[in-house]
Amino acid sequence: MLEGLLPQIPTPLTLLGVVLVLFLLYLLSSTPGPGKSPPGPKPLPLLGNLLHLDLKRLHVSLCELSKKYGSVFTVHVGPKKVVVLAGYKTVKQALVNFAEEFGDREIAPVFRDAFKEHGVLFANGDSWKEMRRFSLSTLRNFGMGKRGSEEKIIDESRHLIEVFENFKGKPFNTTQPVNYSASNIISAIMYGSRFDYADPAFQKMVSRANENMRLLGSAEIQVYNVLPWLRWCCGRWLVNRTRSLKNIDYNIEEIMELVQGLKDTLNPQDPRGFVDSFLVRQQEESDHLGSCFHNNNLNFTVSNLFAAGTDTTATTLRWGLLLMAKYPYIQNQVQEELSRVIGDREPRMEDRRNLPYTDAVIHETQRLANIAPLSIPHTTSCDVTFQGYFIKKGTTVIPLLASVLQDEEEWETPHSFNPGHFLDEKGCFIKRDAFMPFSAGRRACLGESLARMELFLFFTFLLQRFRFTPPPGVSEDELDLTPSVGFTLNPSPHQLCAVSRA
Ligand code: HEM
């Protein structure tokens, strides 16, 4: 009895076993294939290149290494061999021209534990293909990129403005309200209804998802992902893993309850959202043996869409507000354009083409914020020879989006905030090829058009109503742009004032 309550202390025999397994893994990962491997720093046995890598700012270490080893290189994270693709040309070529070969998802142990290869984010093969196809077409049916979601976002923007107004120009942390509004857009599409910001169940759900974004990017979980057997000998010390799995379990329970409520009131002729459409399809396929439309895929796909669609959009929007407070002369130009083109009426999507400066500021925010610097890692689906290098089937591949969004050959001032990157000499908006925050190819973000609509509408609604400034006594120079690293790159904790312009 008591034994189970005590921390498990590894015995010398277990440790010896661990060292042997590590050594075997090291030997296996360094076995040469039929061609030359991408170059990289020499790995130490067992540790690999851990001494070259700052796990807290992995993207920075990898960008540095690419200067020395080129645009396709190898690093060993502990015993695990990883191929990194860097720079716009290489990342685009791999993800688009070699879409099949580089198109599988790396399912790191913590995600395998959590999602058991169901859903759309951390799955591969036929099940992933079905879930991705179904998610894309159903999101479109419920208005992704069209009028339907425009109405939902406009409605949510009004709620968000109300919350900001309640602070009466006093400093506050933007995280919670912005997360609530982004999460409510996914809720409206998934369930057909939004939550009240004061609903405690909703608040808990969003805060668990937020906490997970931080935990899943932690050094502890990165170490666990390369040494998953640690859970057998040191499971009790993997506190972030335990906590994040618990958070996911709670959120799945919450989803199951909501799904049950929808099932009880389902009218197949009039689906209210994504879940209803899934339930209808599930009924249609009930006598198909091996159908992918089972409950696990429903629960995990809904959970994935919340996770992928909330923090990403909310974080980007918060970067946008912070950058406006930091660069008031840029905020002036956005507000001048909004006043001139829209005046006092509510913004609509069709205004975007008449707001080139505002559009450029939103794109530049996404470029500089670089919220998914490693994308979400991929794995090779077969042996591949790429740019003369041989890469074995099943090798982890990082498309280093940070190196694309800050590629010195593509951007005039890669490391500073410059909306001019997206404007021609006449001030018209221009698209840039190396703008790839949503990645590319067969695993590219499936919520891109929804995210772009959210960013445009939330940003213009807020900038039309409020002037964003640092708290009293803090200068613009003191606003810190150093990101806080989690699963995504977030602004470091800060407060802003939203001063009403009316
Ligand atoms: C500013 C907002 C967003 C950014 C920057 C972003 C970025 C990304 C990136 C970099 C990936 C990985 C692509 C790859 O593996 O190569 C991704 C995947 C994904 N995103 Fe987004 N995303 C955003 C918003 C959204 C939204 C709103 C949704 C949901 C409606 C969403 C759903 C997904 C899903 C489901 C995947 C996994 C696709 C797959 O594995 O097949 N994302 N996103």
Description:
A hairpin with a 2-residue loop joins strand 1 and strand 2. The chain contains 18 helices and eleven strands. Helix 8 (175-191) crosses helix 9 (200-216), helix 14 (295-326) packs across helix 16 and helix 14 (295-326) packs parallel to helix 18. It has helices at residues 2-5, 12-29, 58-69, 88-97, 109-115, 125-141, 147-166, 175-191, 200-216, 219-226, 230-234, 239-264, 274-284, 295-326, 328-341, 356-369, 401-405, 448-465, and strands at 72-77, 80-85, 104-105, 378-379, 384-386, 389-391, 396-399, 466-469, 483-485, 489-491, 497-500. The longest helix is centred in the middle third of the chain and has 32 residues, at 295-326. Mean pLDDT is 91; it is low at 1-10 and 12-25. With 502 residues, the protein is of the alpha+beta class. It has one domain: Cytochrome p450 (Orthogonal Bundle). The chain is globular. Helix content is 51%, strand content 8%. The chain binds protoporphyrin IX containing FE (HEM).
